[in-house]
């Protein structure tokens, strides 16, 4: 439904208004109805998508990244060129990954000038900092046009044939309004939603650093993707169709925002443009009362409603739902919690997978990391009750802990100050996503 609405609006633009004047999809505000369904925090996130909250410089910017091949062809025609120039643009942006219009050397200088004079740019931001862990995980800080920093992580998997899988863990917002009690991103506050191209460029930046194709994308970086649905759907389309990452290789992780899963599931049914992704819910608790103490936003979306929506999602899409469960020592990691979690899942069907994430200690939090024995005990209690479970291998622990931590280290205020703009010398850091 959502993608159908977004893409049909875009098509209308293509036919009735020249693409040269397109307002970027990520800039449109949410409908009044969907805004009503969101909490105050969510409404703040929705407001940050609206054109008014962006600086004049940003809203005037015309960004090529994120446009589809037909849109680029239309743009070329609107700018007085042959349509095939749009195909070339597509190739330069997504295959050759050229970052500046000036460097489009395959295109005539005159066309490059026209593009620049009309205010078009590629939309790639500089990499502000990279931190590499001993296991090869690289965490990047990307500096956005408005001097805000976002984190993105490249997680390689190597075997004897070399690099076989490269996962990009991408951010969907600058900061996060939901403030889950154990998450560093929430502690750093919320600035704004990312635009679709600012999500796509994270994947391209990882490809650039690793000199390798990204095979998998997980929306598990900074922010809550379901509070920035339009941009996330726009990025999903572009990553799938333009960057050519399989839909099934894209996972969207959410802590739960009322009505969003439902909308996405119904979208798949009503649209010919199938929107398939792995639905991953961050549960972190086996009952509603406990969940409310860990996840403040849980009050507006009770556990039973989440389970109902996940069950419906599975019935409609046949896509198995994963549940993430951050294990916090002494809080939600006891045997009785595992037993209760197994019962909860069995009450709602059996097509679930649980991904256990041992808590990654963050600054300013009293939570403790569980022991290895405690984690294994939790996993085997679930397995004994026929729940499929995996334990997330900590990656990049020596390159800078959980989501949001690296950003918090380099950016203390919402905007970079002058002293923060010059990167400090290389330090040994720790990441995990
Ligand atoms: N807002 C989304 C995606 C961002 S976080 C969500 O909540 O799903 C991605 C995953 O990392 C979530 O499951 C989150 O709970 C987990 N996470 C964040 N900080 C963590 C920490 N310090 N230790 C362990 N897991 C953490």
From TrEMBL:
Subcellular location: Cytoplasm
A single GO molecular function term of this UniProt record: RNA methyltransferase activity
CC annotations in GO: cytoplasm
Pfam families, alphabetized: Radical_SAM (PF04055), RlmN_N (PF21016)
Alphabetical keyword list: 4Fe-4S, Cytoplasm, Iron, Iron-sulfur, Metal-binding, Methyltransferase, rRNA processing, S-adenosyl-L-methionine, Transferase, tRNA processing
Residue ranges occupied by any Radical SAM core domain in the UniProt entry: 162-398
One biological process term in Gene Ontology: rRNA base methylation
Cofactor(s) of this protein: [4Fe-4S] cluster
HAMAP family (alphabetical): RNA_methyltr_RlmN
Protein name: Radical SAM core domain-containing protein
């Amino acid at each position: 439904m959502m993608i159908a609405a977004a893409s049909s609006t875009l098509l209308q633009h293509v036919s009735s208004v020249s693409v040269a004047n397109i307002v970027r999809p990520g800039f449109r505000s949410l409908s009044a109805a969907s805004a009503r369904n969101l909490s105050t925090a969510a409404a703040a996130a929705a407001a940050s998508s609206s054109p008014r909250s962006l600086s004049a410089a940003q809203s005037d910017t015309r960004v090529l990244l994120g446009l589809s091949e037909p849109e680029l062809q239309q743009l070329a025609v609107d700018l007085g060129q042959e349509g095939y120039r749009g195909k070339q643009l597509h190739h330069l942006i997504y295959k050759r990954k050229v970052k500046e219009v000036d460097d489009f050397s395959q295109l005539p200088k005159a066309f490059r000038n026209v593009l620049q004079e009309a205010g078009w740019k590629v939309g790639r931001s500089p990499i502000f900092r990279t931190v590499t862990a001993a296991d090869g995980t690289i965490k990047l800080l990307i500096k956005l046009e408005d001097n805000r920093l976002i984190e993105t992580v490249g997680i390689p998997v190597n075997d004897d044939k070399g690099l076989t899988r490269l996962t990009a863990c991408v951010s969907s917002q600058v900061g996060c309004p939901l403030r889950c009690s154990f998450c560093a991103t929430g502690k750093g506050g919320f600035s704004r939603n990312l635009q679709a191209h600012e999500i796509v460029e994270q994947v391209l930046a990882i490809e650039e650093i690793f000199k390798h194709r990204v095979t998998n994308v997980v929306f598990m970086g900074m922010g809550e993707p379901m509070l920035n649905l339009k941009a996330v759907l726009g990025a999903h389309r572009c990553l799938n169709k333009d960057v050519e990452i399989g839909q099934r290789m894209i996972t969207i992780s959410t802590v739960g925002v009322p009505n969003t899963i439902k909308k996405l599931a119904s979208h798949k049914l009503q649209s010919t443009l199938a929107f398939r992704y792995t639905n991953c819910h961050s549960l972190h608790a086996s009952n509603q009362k406990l969940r409310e103490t860990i996840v403040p936003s849980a009050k507006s979306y009770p556990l039973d409603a989440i389970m109902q929506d996940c069950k419906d999602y599975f019935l409609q899409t046949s896509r198995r739902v994963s549940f993430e469960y951050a294990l916090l020592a002494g809080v939600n990691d006891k045997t009785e919690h595992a037993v209760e979690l197994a019962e909860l899942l069995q009450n709602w069907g059996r097509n679930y997978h649980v991904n256990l994430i041992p808590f990654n200690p963050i600054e300013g939090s009293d939570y403790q990391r569980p022991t290895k024995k405690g984690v294994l005990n939790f996993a085997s209690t679930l397995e004994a009750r026929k729940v499929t479970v995996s334990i997330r291998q900590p990656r990049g622990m020596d390159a800078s802990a959980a989501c949001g931590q690296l950003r918090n280290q380099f950016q203390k205020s919402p905007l970079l100050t002058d002293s923060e703009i010059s990167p400090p010398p290389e330090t040994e850091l720790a990441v995990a996503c």
